[in-house]
Sequence to fold (254 residues):
Amino acid sequence: MDSVRSPEWPVAPLGGLAGNSAAARYGTSPGAGPTLGRTGQPPAAPPPPYRLPTGAGSGPPPAHRPPAAPPVPVKILVAGGFGVGKTTTVGAISEIAPLTTEAEMTSAGIGVDDPGSRSAKTTTTVAMDFGCVTIDRSLKLYLFGTPGQARFGFMWDDLARGALGALVVVDSARLDDCFPAIDFFERAGLPFVVGVNAFDGRLALELGEIRWALTIGDHVPLVQFDARDRLSVRDALLVVLDRALDRATRDRRA
Fold:
């Protein structure tokens, strides 16, 4: 039987390799394979290497802002007689959970620790109260509440060391309880402000009468505030701070 030859193939000797070559079948030159992919288009060139934009990285790194200075600490005492609201004052304004040293009152204190007929107080401070409040980025107040009983008076000198001012809390119905605190700060020469705590929102006496009874000069600020109200306590402490700064300014000029 004669061999069968495809009509598209070129004529080649029977049994020869030329008829089965790629050049003979596809009309290409030897060594050049068939065109794959998108025919008629040259292969895409590789992407150029990455280069930084013009001017980038040529200058010095941006300057970093120096860290903000920490606020200046200012020590303020909150003093006064027994049961006048010192612990409440510190707790109302402190931005942290205040440190308190409250102990339950016992029958041994009857006749000695008298918080007054209007008070339902059942505990007493046996060491000190501590709290703090940030005024602004440059100033932070550290509040130290003193114990009110006379038997803890030996602690006052240590608590007052380094203080710039004091808030003497007064109960208008028991003015005699605040006399020791006022005498202490007058002897120590420490600037202080008398803050009359408005129990139940009212005073037993007018502010002018209280100033006369306490025999304090006009140079000593006398303010009314509510120890339970944060904003009211803030205003009283700002008066203390202003008084302390005024004293510091006058001492610097002297």
The beta strands are 72-80, 102-104, 123-125, 129-136, 139-145, 165-171, 192-197, 222-225. The first helix runs from residue 22 to 26. The mean pLDDT is 77.
